[in-house]
């Protein structure tokens, strides 16, 4: 039986990536997964693990090249927040910390409000507030 899910992302500069996510308000597990080559990013109330690995370490695990994030998207990492204001705030923090976005926060389909930003390594993050009272059945 499967017990956990970890998301693993390659990063060019581990120290810069840790600083980026710290500026966004994320925390790291300081006891596990925290080495010179990796960092254990914790997300949400359930502490979903996103492991950040320097590129040589990531390549060693996958035994393959790393895809170029600036040429397309392989995955969109979505973060649920509790309000539209949190979407706006996280988008602003991402830009201030060195990330980028060409997707301004907006309402979608009448019940979602969100924004996509790109981290320092080109990974796409989708910040969403879901108004469950307006969700279609």
Short description:
This protein has 137 residues and is of the alpha/beta class.
Features:
four-stranded mixed β-sheet; 23% helix; 2,3-Dihydroxybiphenyl 1,2-Dioxygenase, domain 1; dioxygenase activity; oxidoreductase; Extradiol dioxygenase; dioxygenase; Glyas_Bleomycin-R_OHBP_Dase
What would the principal axes of the Cα set say about the shape?
A: globular
- The CATH homologous superfamily of the largest domain is called 2,3-Dihydroxybiphenyl 1,2-Dioxygenase, domain 1
**How many helical stretches?**
3
Low-confidence stretches: none
Order of helices and strands: EHEEEHEHEEE
By DSSP, the count of extended strands is 8
Fraction of residues in helices? 10-25%
CATH arch. level architecture of the largest domain: Roll
Rg is: 16 Å
Main beta sheet strand tally, sense and closure:
4 strands, mixed
- Structural class of the helices, strands and pairings? alpha/beta
- Termini separation comes to 31 Å
CATH topology of the largest domain: 2,3-Dihydroxybiphenyl 1,2-Dioxygenase, domain 1
Q: How would you portray this structure in words?
A:
- This protein has helices spanning 14-23, 55-62, 84-96, and strands at residues 6-11, 27-29, 38-43, 48-54, 76-81, 100-108, 112-118, 124-130.
- The strands form two sheets. The protein has a four-stranded mixed β-sheet. A four-stranded mixed β-sheet has the order 5-8-7-6, with helices on one face.
- The longest helix has 13 residues, at 84-96.
- The protein has 137 residues and is of the alpha/beta class.
- The mean pLDDT is 93.
